[in-house]
């Protein structure tokens, strides 16, 4: 008994019971299990090479329900995912439970810095914020036929200021941040662009009843978003975006990839805005022409707001999933110095990758 109570005696006894090779195989299996849990939590749950896989991915992350998670729930989710990443199987949880915790993290923490974002800076907040702004536009209309472009100038300036403030906060949260001067410049430029676009278009359409002026908020929002994104990511455009291989090894910085990423994000924001800015005016005008609101004119504003919310709920992930988040780019499309670096790699890849951003 004394021999088996010390480590040396226990090892000798274990070697008799379990052959050395079997023990080595068991240890190797345990090490591999720690390295490779049930699935790789750092890879997207759905196939990102097709549109529907990307849509499912973003729909889970961007759902407004994630905004109601408390700090305790957010940090608990982060702790669970970190445990799983380190090899803990979390046997009390199903795969769906673990993926739900991962979606919770992705909805609230900056993917580049790991910092928790303020609620108004999360992309899931776009729906309630925009509904509040659209509700403000509708509440102050004098009648069912008046549009935002024909409401009072001070009120337009106020709402554009609110909208662009929210956009600036979101853009700052979804990037690595920036200097105070960069954030301030982006804020001033985007607000001026938004207000200037709306006021300019209002002046153009001041004496017309044309149906076309109903689409002008789309162009105003596009100009303002383009300005804000470009200024906020000016450092990236100047220095380049990180380029990495399929096994996540960074090769260098590419300005070409940065330009592509920024243009893709601007296109995605445009796609988010399009359904409500194009389809909704057409639908409301059709209902109005059929006399749907003749006896109940106040119903128009309520219906407009409800339809806006439903459409925007699906339009946000729709815009995000137009392009893969980790986007491939041909090595031959990069700068010559990067092409040289890639050619020196063992088995030079024909495609490398960059993060386009949100």
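-> sequence recovered:
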């Amino acid at each position: 008994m004394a021999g088996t109570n010390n480590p040396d005696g226990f090892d000798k006894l274990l070697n008799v019971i379990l052959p050395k090779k079997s023990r080595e195989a068991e240890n190797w299996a345990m090490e591999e299990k720690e390295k490779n849990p049930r699935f790789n939590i750092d890879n997207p749950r759905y196939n990102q090479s097709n549109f529907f896989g990307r849509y499912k991915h973003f729909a889970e992350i961007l759902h407004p329900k994630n905004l109601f998670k408390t700090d305790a729930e957010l940090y608990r989710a982060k702790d669970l995912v970190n445990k799983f990443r380190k090899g803990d199987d979390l046997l009390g949880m199903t795969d769906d439970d673990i993926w739900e915790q991962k979606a919770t993290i992705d909805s609230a923490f900056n993917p580049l810095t790991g910092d928790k974002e303020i609620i108004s800076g999360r992309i899931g907040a776009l729906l309630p914020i925009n509904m509040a702004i659209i509700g403000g536009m509708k509440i102050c209309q004098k009648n069912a036929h008046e549009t935002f472009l024909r409401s009072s100038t001070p009120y337009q300036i106020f709402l554009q200021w609110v909208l662009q403030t929210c956009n600036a906060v979101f853009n700052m949260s979804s990037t690595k941040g920036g200097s105070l001067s960069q954030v301030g410049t982006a804020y001033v430029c985007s607000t001026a662009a938004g207000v200037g676009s709306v006021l300019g278009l209002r002046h153009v359409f001041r004496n017309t009843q044309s149906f076309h002026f109903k689409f002008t908020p789309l162009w105003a929002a596009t100009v303002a978003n383009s300005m804000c994104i470009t200024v906020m990511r000016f450092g990236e455009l100047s220095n380049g975006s990180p380029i990495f291989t399929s096994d996540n090894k960074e090769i260098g910085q590419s300005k070409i990839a940065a330009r592509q990423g920024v243009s893709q994000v601007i296109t995605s924001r445009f796609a988010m805005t399009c359904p409500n800015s194009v389809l909704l005016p057409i639908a409301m005008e059709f209902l109005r022409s059929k006399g749907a609101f003749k006896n109940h004119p106040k119903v128009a504003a309520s219906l407009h707001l409800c339809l806006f919310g439903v459409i925007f709920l699906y339009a946000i992930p729709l815009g995000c999933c137009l392009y893969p988040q980790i986007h491939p780019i041909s090595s031959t499309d990069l700068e010559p110095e990067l092409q040289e670096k890639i050619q020196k790699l063992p088995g030079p890849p024909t495609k490398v990758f960059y993060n386009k951003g949100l």
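The beta strands are 241-244, 250-254, 326-330, 351-355.
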